[in-house]
Here is the input.
Amino acid sequence: MLLAIDVGNTNTVLGLYKLASSTGEAELVANWRITTPSRQTTDEFGVMLRSLFGLRGLDMTAVDGIAIASVVPPLDSMLRQVCEVYFKIKPLMIEPGVKTGLPVLTDNPSDAGADRIVDCVAAFEKFGGPCIVVDMGTATTFDVVSKKGEFLGGAIAPGLGISAEALFARAARLSRVDIKKPTKVIGTGTVDNMQIGLYYGYIGLVDGILERMIAELGPETKTVATGGLAKLIASGSKYIGAVDEMLTLTGLRIIYERNLERQKKRGA
Here is the structure.
């Protein structure tokens, strides 16, 4: 089985896959979303993984492959140690030099975040190109894949959570509110005023960028959203055509499978 780990700035998503055989497709057996560890030791993170597996009645010894996409470099060494100590496996870290099948045509390909590359691999595999992936996490990234399956670049904007925190921090009389879809557009109280501004303001940001990107790429462009807030924003967007909350995990699985022979040669 494959353990796919997507380490973001705020949350970490894990997925356990039963890989495809000659007679079937890969199956997502279990998935978890946790707060990204900031000060946990190797043992603390390992114990947490044991708890997660145990609560689902799963056996950690069944894992024979691990793929990791991390945008938090200080955690990379700890994650490697967890894999080697608790799973006896050398993980496949998505980094320059790893075979992804996705040519990166940006000014500095090594600058592209691992999660963005992984998202694009999965999106092109599932939807074809041209395609735009909107990943709504701590930051919201817009990643563009060409018709030929090349990563062309994109855009990065502050995430909805960051925008909300900035509003609360800088406006003394405004308190934190639940971010959700408002029932009306003209608010009559402070709370619904803030919810309307956050929700529809962010949809305006997303749709404004997508409208311009689609105009440049062509009307046949597909769009897919992923990340913790994908469903919330996509429900009000004019341009998001699909939501796939497991897109990054799917991309990790695809890349792992493409590197399986290489991993075997490395003794993983």
